[in-house]
Amino acid sequence: MVAFGYVLAAASKHKATRKFLRGKFIDSLRIHVKGGSGGNGLPKYGGVGGKGGDVYAVAKEGITLKDVQKKFPTKRISAASGANSLRTSILGKPGEDKVIEVPTGITVIDEHKRTLGQLDNDGEKLLLARGGAGGAPHTQFLGRRGQVHSVTLDLKIIADVGLVGFPNAGKSSLLRAISQAKPKVASYPFTTVRPEIGIIEYSDMRQISVADLPGLIEGAHVNVGLGHKFLKHVERTRLLVLVADVQGFQLSPQHRHHTCLDTVVLLNKELELYDDNLLDKPAILLINKMDTKGAEEMFAAIKDKLHRLSDMEELEPDSLPRRVLQFHDVIPISVQCDALSVKKVKERIRAVLDFQAELLKEDNENSVLQNIRTQNKEFAAKMV
Fold it and tell me: Is 199 exposed, middle or buried (0-12, 13-18, 19+ CB in 10 A)?
């Protein structure tokens, strides 16, 4: 019997951040924002003070959260206050707005964990803190204070495809083979400690973005290892490509060895425990390193089982996911030695994404038709 032990205790222990993880990639930044105060009015002449400036976040391609941190090292951002009403200027001049340029893919979360909005496209704008109203008769001509609070800028990588797998499964090598990206590749775990984005370019100029995300380990759903720093980026991808080493995986000599089949089950389980909505995404499974000794025999022994993970009697029930990813394809590959298998992966990625786009288009068209029919019925009922 095979059982999987999740390292939950490690999640509660505070560990110092490893040196190579510090300062390289920021995907969450908390800032303090303050709208400008409104200017005072002028009672004698009925003058109205200027409105305080607002604080906005605007999405811009090419910006990183590290750039935001460098521009605002104190993480305290304020808009200008409105001008007071004067005898020579009855209407006070409004305060200047403050605009923060942020990366695309940002979700803004307030102090109460509420989502204020998302900025997924270049140029999208979101109000973070409203300026106070200028002094007027209904405020006894006293300017109001602007909004003041802290917000978290949470980045989730936006890509068409997300590569998912345990460390050293070959995700970085695959990304290099199918795109122009040049992630670091080595024969030891955790080579990738930050997301890498590559672009697959096809002969007809079609482009598909692929994200190589840091490797999972057991317990990632409770933030063990890179945990949530990895899993949250999967949410914005349209297609999951799971990569598993045919020889299996062992994190270190102190950890037990997982077979290839074990790793696929564990990856499925981690995704489910973090957010079972991820299992609704289309998925492709790649069994990598087919050029290694005994790989053909190993793959032949598990090929059929990969399509029916929930029926595996040799696994403990608690080890199995309640919901199983439905793979469009299970493809044996050798990134290092077999260019034809890599080409097949590129073709299948495109085919699955195109198929999903057609389904979405049909669903949208059916939804529109259903709304029109419902409106027609309601209109006809009113006319009777």
Answer: middle
